[in-house]
Amino acid sequence: MNQTDIAIVGGGLAGVGLAEQLHRQGVDYQLFEARDRLGGRIESKAYDGARFDLGPAWFWHVQPRLTAACERFGIDVFEQFSDGELLFEDSGRQVHRGLGFASLVSASLAQLGRLFGSRAEKPVKTVIRDWATEPDTATDADQGFGMEHPSTEITGRIQSIWHGQVLFGASEMAPQFGGYMEGALEQAQRVAQHVLGETANLRSTLLAGSPDSPHQP
Hints:
Elements: E1 7-9, H1 13-24, E2 30-32, E3 44-47, E4 50-53, H2 64-72, E5 88-89, E6 95-96, H3 109-116, H4 156-161, H5 181-208
Parallel strand pairs: 1-2
Antiparallel strand pairs: 3-4, 5-6
Helix pairs in contact: 1-5
Pfam families: Amino_oxidase (PF01593), NAD_binding_8 (PF13450)
Domain Amine oxidase: 104-196
InterPro entries: Amino_oxidase (IPR002937), FAD/NAD-bd_sf (IPR036188), Flavin_MAO (IPR050703)
């Protein structure tokens, strides 16, 4: 059995981001993921030679970590369409057209029918991913209706229970971009800085205790 001092639980963007930072610094770790794939809520499905995103599909240019990751791994990005007409259905099922701004309409087949006519109710394939019902992502507490990303803060008192041995790196715990892809990388960076700092301290302690250390009396 392989042994390691660092276990990363979860191979979503935060876990993979943390693993990449530790790997670049030559720090040993093991990553554990319940699914048979990495990426967490970043997922796509293949159909007829094309791939369709079921998770996040866009980000802002003011999110530096995600922008840098796309550049580092050669991921092509493009600006959101801003030409054409906005077409959407509000909560009262009233259809709004011709408001002068293009947008991607994602809705149920019934809604597509109301927007585009009966032909839109019969797509060649329908793929729906509700992450709140995906057992490796959500719990029963996520079934409620919310208008904003949840804010989760682990207090120092709770952290002290594990004496700094358990660190939480989920996107929702990021102080600036909580709940977003950038937040996952933000929190991964914070955890990596802590782990690398502790690793450096341990190495310094071991070096100081070495018989070959110049600091020995």
